[in-house]
Design a protein that fits this description.
The complex is a heterotrimer. Chain A folds into three domains: about 290 residues, no CATH class; about 90 residues, no CATH class; about 60 residues, Arc Repressor Mutant, subunit A, CATH 1.10.10.410. In chain A, about 40% of the residues lie in helices and about 20% in strands. Chain A is built from 15 helices and 17 strands. In chain A, the strands form four sheets. In chain A, strands 1, 2, 7, 8, 11, 12, 13, 14 and 15 form a nine-stranded mixed β-sheet that branches. A three-stranded antiparallel β-sheet of chain A has the order 6-5-16, with no helix packed on it. The two termini of chain A are about 55 Å apart. By secondary structure, chain B is mainly alpha-helical. Chain B has a domain of about 50 residues: Glu-tRNAGln amidotransferase C subunit, N-terminal domain (Histone, subunit A, Orthogonal Bundle), CATH 1.10.20.60. Chain B is built from three helices and two strands. The two termini of chain B are about 35 Å apart. The mean pLDDT of chain B is about 90. By secondary structure, chain C is an alpha/beta fold. Chain C folds into two domains: about 350 residues, Alpha-Beta Complex (Amidase signature (AS) enzymes), CATH 3.90.1300; about 80 residues, no CATH class. In chain C, helix 2 runs antiparallel to helix 3, helix 7 runs antiparallel to helix 16 and helix 10 crosses helix 12. Chain C starts with 9 loop residues before the first helix and ends with a helix. The mean pLDDT of chain C is about 95. Classes of the chains: A alpha+beta, B mainly alpha, C alpha/beta. Chains B and C meet through helix 1, helix 2 and strand 1 of B and helix 10, helix 11, helix 12, helix 13 and helix 14 of C. Strand 10 of chain A pairs antiparallel with strand 2 of chain B, so a sheet runs across the interface.
Chain lengths: ~500, ~100, ~475
């Protein structure tokens, strides 16, 4: 599935508009707490309720965090940017205009590289600061469905939350690339600390502009805008569905109509959000209540210098340490896993060993439990204790699995404690192992004869029998050696 | 655009953007008044000043930014006290419509 | 004791309080009595709450503090007052009770000023006569058949009628200065950004400021001292550049006044022109020099203003949508509710300006109207900058006419707008101007407007005090003198 989406002589052209809710303490233009999940309408004031006479004052931290993200996206940060009013009436828009940025955004003209197999770059058109809308709680009708509902209640807690809107050029060529790009972008923003980018809570939202065009064509086809893809999987599925729909239209000789489509994760279908109204006329104009934001080049240089290690750099570092590309990419982009890995690798002191554990046992456990890495009871500290026992040869791989399971089940347990308590320390003593081997060989004369007759693969069976007889504690290497020695004696 | 004359349809279009429900008499009157006012305003339309930067702020020295310090919002009862149609937890609005 | 509040300046009122000649409660009661006696006819207050006023006055008496504490004041009903209805003169805000005070009200409270109530205005400050109030027109205390000017007509009328010692107004295109001139008062439009707009119901954000409307220039300075402060709630406000000083009258040696002769040709009433020429003579007699100045783009101010102000207003007034406060007209869906609410809630003049502003910002017209007007604005600023390279201040009549009869201009919006030709270039430039009474024409007050560069308030107040002393104008309307 990797690489470009190309079917029936057509290719995909995809651009993304990403909204990132910044995790400032206060809202964008007022001092109300910027907090998710509180009781409706408890984080509101004159400003975010748009009472007459209220004035916005821009949040310095939101500007700073936006500039940091812009720098990480390789954007130019202009010396001055300007807020504008974007006018539209809707109950979630208390002023009936959103304070946004129009022709002078905070960040402009960036480029973002997605490494790994089929590496690609995406040009960033701009990233601008704006305020989030209120939340509509729809009474009656399906959740999320707007048309035909029986009225709504508006919660203004979210109104005025700082949003960074990142717009890409239409440089993406497949749904998978869109997902890969967004995954790495999310990891970058989280690494910077500007947002938790939790798609479930809506602190990361992505819309996609999708079109298709004949292979080799330089012109763009008519694009549609896809909304409501609130997970990475839905993003990929939604774009895929829309590409197929457009391909079907084009192949049937029909035109693609410019429209906004709503992705329904339940059915995987797309619904047109047709509005009876004439095309939007937002009547932008510079926000007279706010002054242009000036950016000092020295401050920007300092900000750039203070950025943490970003996922792209992590990827380079991890591949440099000898990790396979796929592993390095995962450990650079899966935010929680990456943090876990760094912690573990630091304790274990061996990048590859740590990576093996994270990619193997830990991943299997996380998948089974359906949790992310910062939620597992097997903390890096506890796992490091287990890894140390393996590296030291105290226990073998089979026992290690058992110990890991024990660590999952009992958050108070330590690896050493489990090994001691269950007597899992491996048997490497020649006399003890020799006794086991002798007994197994005596019990399996046919296999011994077969081996001596030239069927060498029988040794695997015999190793298994010996391991079983040792209660899984046998040192596998020593056992192999001893077995061969006796068989060939 | 030295002579602008607003047609009733244009008046209705502008009124729709501004969410003003005008009756026919208002549309007719506003069409006349706007035509007259815009006729005067058009005296500046012809000035050859395309190279002049527009002024959007009268005081260029304001404090552009505030520190990111949160303080509690208004009590919900106070926030809802002015609502024309309050619900227990928020502001009720009619259906969005088709 | 019986306190005669007619013609009582705030400075004198403060002296009475400090000298224990009366209590704040007695003073407030005297004004409340006066309001009860005459405001039925003048209709200058939209909201008076005697109990609340008296309670606030008693609080000041109990605190026994100094300065202006206990002096009453009236606030234009465009200024948010916590717990007290604020309508902006509009039906759409009927019953609205702000949850916070405007910064200027907060500072008035901090200074111990006692609010007498909220004054009438043109709806959302859009107008020059106070006839566009949804709650009925205010009458001019000098002649009840005439308008008090606007949009701060209520604030002007309460002071002229002795129903408050002073008041706060707002000025977007002349809304402090023109009613001050029409009612024989001093009115100061401060430098843009020297007074906080937080809590001022917005009409045109980039043009408006709050300012004092008073009986004397010294009172204007005293009130400006209270309200001109930096704030963290208005990003465009940085406060005054220097502390405001209370002026003494004196000579004007070394002062050069600019007189834009060309502007004066544009339809100034004869009596207004005569008073203006007398003021010029006074300036010279006090030692000042007069020179001609040319403000070639100022004559485009009216056109630029009637794009920029409505454009900003059209956005500012979009929040009145029947969702969170104010009027709602029920309808089956949101859009119909918006349209019905806004149609019923806004008056004719407000709709007119919303329509102009929406049109000027709409696709296809944005550059030709809105951006072009902002370019003219730049040129007007440059005109003033250039003039202030040569002169200390510019003199103009405040308005080209005296107060006109109620109803005279209601059917001709352009004629109404034209009354502001001398004031609105000042708002476009963001510079301060002071209007001081300079006599009577046909028995009605006229105003002299003194315009200065940004942050020249102290100069303007000093110049104003000099003219005031020479004009020897009695700000009490003749009809009220006999009533006293």
């Amino acid at each position: 599935m990797s690489g470009a989406w190309q079917r029936n002589g057509y290719e995909a052209v995809i651009g993304l508009e990403i909204h990132v809710q910044l995790n400032t303490a206060s809202k964008m233009f007022c001092a109300c707490p910027n907090r998710y999940g509180d009781e409706p309408n408890t984080n509101v004031c004159m400003v975010c309720l748009a009472h007459p006479g209220a004035l916005p004052v821009a949040n310095a931290e939101a500007v700073r965090q936006s500039a940091r993200v812009g720098l990480a996206l390789g954007c130019r940060i202009p010396a001055a940017s300007e807020f504008s009013r974007k006018q539209y009436f809707y109950p979630d828009s208390p002023k009936a205009y959103q304070i946004s940025q129009y022709d002078q955004p905070l960040c402009a003209e960036g480029s973002f590289h997605v490494p790994g197999e089929g590496a690609f770059s995406v040009r960033i058109t701009r990233a601008h600061l704006e305020e989030d809308a209120a939340k509509m709680i729809h009474a009656g009708g399906d959740a999320g469905r707007i048309q035909g509902s029986a009225g709504s209640v508006v919660d203004f807690n979210r109104a005025g939350t700082p949003l960074l809107e990142i717009v890409t050029e239409p440089d993406l060529r497949s749904p998978e690339d869109a997902r890969r790009f967004l995954t790495l972008l999310r990891a970058t923003v989280v690494a910077i600390g500007a947002s938790d980018c939790d798609m479930e809570k809506g602190s990361l939202r992505a819309d996609a502009n999708v079109s298709i065009r004949p292979l080799g064509s330089e012109e763009y086809g008519t694009k549609t805008e896809l909304k409501n893809m609130n997970s990475f999987r839905f993003l990929e599925r939604g774009i895929e569905a829309e590409l197929e729909r457009q391909l079907g239209l084009v192949r049937a000789g029909e035109a693609v109509r410019q429209e906004t489509l709503h992705f329904d994760p339940a059915t995987g279908g797309l619904t047109s959000l047709r509005s009876k109204e004439e095309a939007h006329d937002y009547r932008y104009f510079p926000e007279p209540d706010l002054l242009p934001v000036a950016q000092d080049p020295d401050d920007l240089a300092a900000l750039a210098g203070q950025l943490p290690e970003l996922p792209v750099a992590r990827f380079a570092r991890l591949t440099g340490a000898g990790l396979p590309e796929a592993t390095a990419l995962l450990l650079a982009t899966e935010v929680e896993l990456a943090a876990y890995y760094d912690d573990l690798a630091g304790r274990v002191g061996d990048a590859k060993v740590a990576a093996n554990w994270v990619m193997g046992e830990l991943q299997a456990h996380l998948n089974a439990a359906g949790i992310v890495a910062d939620a597992t009871p097997v903390t890096p500290e506890r796992l490091a204790g287990l890894v140390a026992l393996v590296v030291a040869g105290t226990i073998n791989q089979t026992s290690a699995k058992e110990v890991f399971q024990a660590l999952v089940e009992d958050p108070a347990a330590t690896a050493a404690g489990v090994v001691g308590g269950r007597g899992l320390a491996q048997v490497g003593d020649a006399d003890e192992l020799g006794a086991i081997v002798d007994r197994v060989l005596a019990d399996h004369p046919d296999e011994v004869a077969a081996f001596r007759g030239g069927r060498e693969q029988v040794v695997g069976f015999l190793v298994g029998q010996c391991m079983k007889a040792s209660g899984g504690r046998a040192d596998a290497k020593a056992l192999q050696a001893l077995l061969r020695e006796r068989l060939t004696a | 655009m030295s002579d602008v004359e607003l047609t009733p349809d244009e008046v209705r279009h502008v009124a729709a953007l501004a969410r003003l429900g005008l009756d026919d008499a208002e549309v007719e009157r506003l069409g006349r008044e706007l035509t007259s006012i815009l006729g005067h305003v058009n005296t500046i339309a012809q000035l050859p000043i395309a190279d002049v930067p527009p002024t959007t702020h009268a005081n260029p020295h304001g404090d552009a930014l505030r520190p990111d310090a949160a303080r509690p919002g208004a009590p919900r009862a106070e926030a809802l006290a002015n609502a024309p149609d309050p619900a227990p937890e928020g502001f009720r609005v009619p259906p969005i419509g088709a | 004791m019986a306190i005669d509040v007619i013609g009582l300046t705030a400075e004198r009122a403060a002296a009475l309080l400090r000298g224990r000649a009366c209590t704040a409660e007695e003073l407030a009661q005297a004004y409340l009595d006066r309001i009860a006696a005459v405001d039925g006819e003048i209709h200058s207050y939209l909201h008076v709450d005697p109990e609340r006023t008296l309670a606030a006055a008693r609080e000041q008496d109990a605190a026994g503090v100094d300065g202006l504490a206990g002096v009453p004041i009236a606030y234009k009903d465009l200024l948010s007052t916590r717990g007290v209805p604020t309508t902006a003169g509009s039906r759409i805000l009927k019953g609205f009770v702000p949850i916070e005070d405007a910064d200027v009200v907060r500072w008035g409270n901090e200074a111990g000023l006692v609010s007498l109530g909220k004054t009438n205005l043109d709806e959302f400050a859009m107008g020059s006569s106070t006839e566009h109030s949804a709650y009925g027109p205010t009458r001019n205390p000098w002649d009840p058949t005439r308008v008090p000017g606007g949009s701060s007509g209520g604030s002007a009328a309460v002071v002229a009628a002795g129903c408050a010692p002073w008041a706060l107004g707002t000025d977007t295109g002349g809304s402090i200065r023109q009613p001050a001139a029409f009612c024989g008062l001093v009115g100061l439009m401060p430098t843009y950004g020297s007074v906080s707009r937080f809590g001022v119901v917005a009409f045109a954000c980039s043009l408006e400021q709050v300012g004092p409307m008073t009986l004397t220039v010294r009172d204007a300075a005293l009130l400006q001292q209270v309200i001109a402060r930096d704030t963290d709630r208005d990003a465009t406000c940085t406060g005054p550049r220097a502390p405001i000083e209370v002026p003494e009258p004196g000579r004007l040696d070394g002062i050069t006044f600019g007189v834009p002769r060309v502007e004066l040709e544009a339809g100034v009433e004869e009596g207004v022109r005569a008073r203006f020429d007398e003021s010029l003579a006074i300036a010279e007699s006090l030692g000042a020099r007069l020179v001609d100045v040319d403000l070639p783009y100022a004559r485009h101010g009216l056109a630029a203003y009637y794009v920029i102000a409505p454009a900003e207003a059209s956005a500012n007034l979009s929040r009145f949508d029947g969702v969170r406060y104010g009027l709602r007209v029920d309808a089956p869906d949101v859009r119909a509710m918006y349209e019905a609410t806004r149609d019923a809630g806004f008056g004719a003049e407000v709709k007119r300006r919303i329509m102009i502003g929406t049109y000027a910002l709409s696709a296809g017209y944005h550059d030709a109207y809105y951006v072009q007007a902002q370019r003219v604005r730049t040129l007007i600023r440059r005109d003033f900058d250039a003039a202030f390279g040569d002169v200390d201040a510019i003199l103009l009549p405040t308005a080209p006419s005296v107060a006109f009869p109620i109803g005279a201009r209601l059917d001709d919006p352009l004629a109404m707008y034209a009354n502001d030709i001398f004031t609105l270039p000042v708002n476009l430039a963001g510079i301060p101007a002071l209007s001081v009474p300079n006599g009577l024409s046909e028995g009605l007050p006229t105003g002299l407007q003194i315009i200065g560069p940004a942050h020249s308030e102290n100069l303007l107040l000093r110049l104003g005090a000099a003219f005031e002393a020479e004009h020897a104008f009695d700000p009490v309307p003749p009809g009220l003198r006999s009533a006293a």
